[in-house]
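Standup notes
- DV: blocked on the single-chain target, sequence here:
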Amino acid sequence: MTKNQSPSSPDSFALRLDESALQEAATLDLEDGAVTPGTSPYNDAIIKLLNDALATELVCVLRYKRHHFTAHGMASPAIADELMTHANEEAAHADKIAKRIVQLGGSPDFEPSSLLGRSHAEYDDSSDLKEMLRANLRAERVAVEAYRQMIRLIDDKDPTTRRMLEEILTEEEE
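- DV (later): unblocked, structure below
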């Protein structure tokens, strides 16, 4: 604080951008376009995290759909409808993640033979309605924890990916 600034003057708490960093950002790798996310040293690791999250979402879609079509019992129509709603939500998450992988210069991994091995959540083929719901609850808890960990790991290394994961986490927690 300078002599002429009082503790409550507007300049004493001013937030100012680094003009030299702005100029550097404006000219660095200009031929790559407006955004150059592929230049991060963490890019490959982030793409791997995202591909594992993609596998998790896809396994969840498959589990929810199987449970939707195989749910039986008096309460099953309402529960089956809810399971399909969750399947569609997980599919939307998978689409967001795949799009971000491409934006980062990666390739979304939809390889069926490796989905389960890369997924954080398990597939479930139970036929008992209670067991189906328990399996889905376990998988949602795993997904929530996985997204929390990814958000912490990515932190400020890729703010755009972190925000996308935070949005997905918010939906998963609902």
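- Follow-up: The radius of gyration is 22 Å.
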